[in-house]
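HUMAN: Can I see a protein plus its fold?

ASSISTANT:
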Amino acid sequence: EGAGGAFIAWQDRRNTNNDVYCQRVTGAGAAQWTAAVAVASGAGDQLGMQVINDGEGGIILAWEDSRGGMKDIYCQKINGAGAALWKANGIAICAAAGDQFSPRLASDSSGGAIIIWWDYRTSKNYDLYCQRISSAGEAKWGTDGILVFSQRNKTNLAFPVYAPAIINDNEGGAVIAWQDERSGSF
């Protein structure tokens, strides 16, 4: 937030399901908006959110969302005045078959974000996918993201992926790292 203030985001069950809210506070802890902003509320649970600074005075949030029955990845951009800049209740980053969960995100240095997540769309083992979302909320890398790492090798053996992490590369992309067991151990 800068100037000693912060954006605070959380999930709560005030409307029965887990929903995502945020508030902006000063360095002294005073709320900047009349009420907390409902980032995502409605059917299903919204859980596992992550938040980054958008570099334009606001934030971008990503979370797993079960509004459609399965877990999907959604995202929203909130400006410094507390207004949602993308579609109400967020935009779908990935709504492919199977569950998608545990989003992580990094700035794309242009007011957007690059999001990674675990994805069960092709098998009972999860793969690692990512998507770049522009400052305007447009998916840049196809529908439902692109494959970063598949747990299956040519002999169809599964390699579990652990602890994915992402960081901005300061050139519009990101560096993604994870642990896997393809060598037989960590």
About this structure: The longest strand covers residues 6-15. The two ends are 37 Å apart (CA to CA). The mean pLDDT is 90. The chain has no helices and 13 strands.
